[in-house]
Amino acid sequence: SLTDSPVTLKILQNWVPRVSPYFDKEHYTYVGHQIVIQESIEHFGAVVWPGALALSQYLESNQEQFNLKDKKVLEIGAGTGLVSIVACILGAYVTATDLPEVLENLSYNISRNTQNMNMHKPEVRKLVWGEGLNEDFPVSTYHYDFILATDVVYHHAALDQLLATMVYFCKPGTVLLWANKFRFTTDYEFLEKLGNIFNTTILAEFPESNVKLLKATVREN
């Protein structure tokens, strides 16, 4: 039900601003760990978007409600890897996925920020929405407790494939957490389609950044 009133939150400035002419590394602190993210101006997926900050902050603050310890977590469209790194610090078995051209930077950030920690080693894999899901992630082997997605909806042509990917991975018992900056009618149309398929709740809104955080679960008959 979308009737429960969501929490209104603000994205906290919990990264360390650095005076640098280069668009390269951002420093964040979540769950008591400093996380250094290398961005790349060449790809959309290689920049930290506000949805990632919102979801990272929410997971850090709501560990009792969403306990990721020893849970299997899949991030789709992981981008720079910030959310996957936070989930990893929170104790999850993380699989971070994105398009082939983003994987090198994603792998670099994830290994750099998790290498010396006593935690489950995260995995980085290619996932093109809607393509080869059954071959690469057969249902018999892969079941996830949480699917995480941030700022995956914007002006692009793969929205139907994205929805199909969410449907594919969301099994009974799986929780999808999707944070997105809402800018265009297409974003709201996607939200409506999601609501037609899943039980959807808006958990939190970050009005200053136009970000909404949604929880979706499979409708059980």
TrEMBL record:
Q: Name one GO biological process term.
A: methylation
Q: Superkingdom of this entry's organism?
A: Eukaryota
**Gene3D superfamilies linked:** Vaccinia Virus protein VP39
**Matching InterPro entries, A to Z?**
Methyltransf_16, SAM-dependent_MTases_sf
Q: Name one GO molecular function term.
A: methyltransferase activity
**Entry keyword set:** Methyltransferase, S-adenosyl-L-methionine, Transferase
Q: Name one Pfam family in it.
A: Methyltransf_16
Descriptive protein name:
MT21C methyltransferase
Source organism: Haliaeetus albicilla
